[in-house]
């Protein structure tokens, strides 16, 4: 006798997109464009395709820069040029063939951009900003204050901010051309959209400082202009800044209501990343309370944060704390996490036919 249908494996509709279950892959920076062109390649096809074969419903890409200077590192993926579209289309096609949906996370790293990747095996002294003469750049920030030991950014002008909005709009149009199913705006972790949102980092005395939400809301409007009406728009927020005087869950819940009114379909709820040296106490599901607070405002939300076990993910959705669970490190360890979870929760799973021997 099979177990009853789990909450985690019920479909979810976002506009015209129906997700086959509530399990997704969280956006994770990969720093894998070795030629620094921003073009993804065969590695990315395999990387993202494996999660779709493993049963995840939604794959969200790594932070994908809308301008060259918006990259986190020189190795980041991009959508700032039409030349990036065919390469992304190959990734999208691979995910679709395996039955999953894919969203691109569009980002501008702001003052946290232009850093060394800091991957295992990189020289120990390559942990801060890449010098301009070594392929780095002068970063753009809300107020001109630096992030930790990174190089100080320039304070972006009014005109440059408009260029950022235009960059997001154009990148969203390219995402549509590449066949993505959804777009996510990265307004978390201290990157540029988040830097403008928080009173800790936005100390401007112009209109962008008087209304700290203005840049994000303008960006939402801009990308919606070029997205089909049935295509979902997601926004990732740091629900709590984890910084004294910063935004907390109640602020983000209120913002989520304004985002819904502008056409945002799901809020991807993370936390922190705004200031150097913030204190965390990570534990399984440590960011779920923030997602629950935003969901209580009426928003559809995704929860993240060391969610590793199927029973835990099931409880989060079943108990109404979130609508979707996004996994990162757990998916890297086991790309077939969703298949295993369905077997554990329901006693049977929808299996990729060519893998049937593994599940006898």
TrEMBL record:
GO terms for molecular function: FMN binding; NADP binding; NADPH dehydrogenase activity. Residues 8-345 form the NADH:flavin oxidoreductase/NADH oxidase N-terminal domain. It comes from Microbacterium betulae. Its cofactor is FMN. Residues 112-135 are annotated as: Disordered. Pfam families: Oxidored_FMN. SUPFAM superfamilies: FMN-linked oxidoreductases (SSF51395). It comes from the Bacteria. This is NADH:flavin oxidoreductase/NADH oxidase. PANTHER family: NADPH DEHYDROGENASE C23G7.10C-RELATED (PTHR43303:SF4). Keywords: Flavoprotein, FMN, NADP, Oxidoreductase. InterPro entries: Aldolase_TIM, OxRdtase_FMN_N, YqjM-like.
